[in-house]
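Our consortium's second objective concerns turning raw sequence data into structural hypotheses that experimental partners can test. To show how far this objective has progressed, the report includes one record in full. It was chosen at random from the queue rather than selected for favorable results. The single chain below, 220 residues long, was entered without modification.
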Amino acid sequence: MGIDPVPPDVSAARGWLLAELRHEGIRDDRVLNVIARVPREEFVRPQDRGRAYADEALPIGGGQTISQPYTVALMSQLLQLRGDERVLEIGTGSGYQAAVLAELAREVYSIEIDPGLAVSARERLGRLGYHNVKVRTGDGWYGWEEEAQFDAIIITAAAPYIPERLIAQLKPGGRLVMPLGDAGRQSLIRARKQGGELKVKRFTDVLFVPMTGAVRTPTE
């Protein structure tokens, strides 16, 4: 299969995308500036490079997708990052969301359950200069305990509840953003850890692939 070239006027494609994101309600200038800088064409399949700046999800293999830019921008905006945070990401995929986070935070720790995707994402992020991102293969339900605690956690796959181990790895005052629900109904939520409890706010309906791994019930 041949390579689909990036549109010749990449700046115009990025400009269109930023206008679309603003229209859809993205207001954080830091997030918008990062979306404009990160070369999304490097994170999609060669045959999809020509669609890299369309506001749509694209397949990356293994039954997974790279989220549409609006979803990446919205989740990043909800994390409310200011630049000095340590962030845990569950679900590296091709590494695009991790690259965006790398420009918004101090350190990013990203876990990918698919070994092939983890290796390729690690190589890609290193090649593009995102040296403040660490990627490892693992089960996201367990988090990254030896690096905890985190100022923010982002989960890029849907789960029926917030994993208990991730709650424990979130700092007091920290934010966790994820799609909450099952295959039938999911909501994008932000949970704040306050006084040992989570304050959860729902934002919009979404559709993500389910989170895989050693699923545990909330009481286990």
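The partners drew two points from this record. The first strand starts at residue 58 and ends at 61. The chain has a mean pLDDT of 92. Both points have been shared with the crystallography group to help prioritize constructs.
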